[in-house]
Amino acid sequence: MAKTRQQFLCNKCGSMHPKWMGKCPDCGAWDALQPYTAPAHDARKAAIIGTSDIATGADAMPISRIEQDQIARYESGIGEFDRVLGGGVVPGSATLIGGDPGIGKSTLLLQAAGKLAATTGRPVLYVTSEESARQTAMRARRLEISDDRLLILAETNVQRITHQIRSVDPCVAIIDSIQMIYKPDIPAAPGSVTQLRECCMELVYLAKSSAAAIMFVGHVTKEGTLAGPKLVEHIVDTVAYFEGDRFHTHRILRCMKNRFGSTSEVGLFEMTGGGLREVTDPGSLFVESHGGNPPSGSILTAATSGTRVLLLEVQALTASSVIGAAKRKTSGVSSDRVAMIIAVLERRCGLKLAAEDVFVNIAGGVKVIEPAIDLAIALAIASAHLNRPLPSSTLAVGELGLGGELRSIGQLEQRIREAARMGVKHALVPRGSPLGDFGAIEVVPVRRLSEAMQKL
Ligand code: TYD
Ligand code: MG
User: Fold this and answer.
1) Model-level pTM?
2) Bridge partners (DSSP) listed for residue 394
């Protein structure tokens, strides 16, 4: 038998190290390494899947001979939820839904579980390790879920959970949350790195060897004793994060990894008194109404997420600051990108921003990573700096180059069409993109940032 050696696992990035260090050499986190003893993997896997003998394992096969019966996905009927998973839950898959505590993960999954039980007609097991069965039932009643094919199990011991999954044979088993379950024969506290890994591995093996899809709920942790969901991202097939602003009612389910679909999809929800409601038409959800008189530093833009276009409002504010100590604070966009845009504004358009604090915000708590909103950010900052409001009902899209030139972007037509549908009057777009006729919206092609500023 192989000798098991004590190793140390970083609970931030999941890297393994032979000796303890104060700082993780891979991700640089301090005081994040924890002792980790890997159990004998093959023996454990064999016990679960039942291939104890090397000779009885699977043989290599030509790709065309592998059965490819189109596995039907389990669709919940909650369109926004199914869309993020790539069209429904894949049988035998493992999914992780992460998010901040209190954002609505339990609500989302309980609603999905109820719908899945109704649409598939098969049992769905909801394992609650944080709340009691009675509390979950109370919540289910409030959400108007009463299908008896939804089974609730209040349990934290992973061995009893796997036993129940085998005996109930559900189409989907939901574990809410992974940080609270434990395996009794591992000498580590629930929520520790070792427990988290081992419990998840065991459940993922179970999913692969049966047809039950497993969905984990994981709390994103800032500091503290609970190991974060990042650690199990590579074990599962699909990772989605449930995000949103506590102070707003809408929530976004964003896919980060998907072995069975696209990762660019997002699902939009609204938290109401009766649970989460899907938002199929975001329309002007993220745009604040200024009654036709927007303040300076505000402009519309259109960002894409997957197959959908979101109409957003970029807001900027500048305030005088101490030279050399100017702050650049952003929310919803990368501060590096904003720093670059400020540099372009200074050098190519002659704005003096070195002695100004600059704040940039995407209204509604949405996060955007695509550079297509560069032009809108630049115009918002310029408008705030010059204290001149931009014309109302104006949209700007385009990627900004370091020379102050505008580059064309993808899905331009869809963006303009969505803006036109929402009643936007003017759209500034990069010149050179072939454009059709958009009816009521005036499309203004521009080549450079300075030209866009003049036009406005
Ligand atoms: P919850 O699903 O418990 O969050 P998580 O599992 O991510 O920790 O949701 C918590 C919040 O959702 C809570 O603050 C109240 C709100 N909520 C509603 O607004 N309406 C509802 O119908 C429900 C069930 C919850
Ligand atoms: Mg919860």
Assistant:
1) 0.77
2) 426
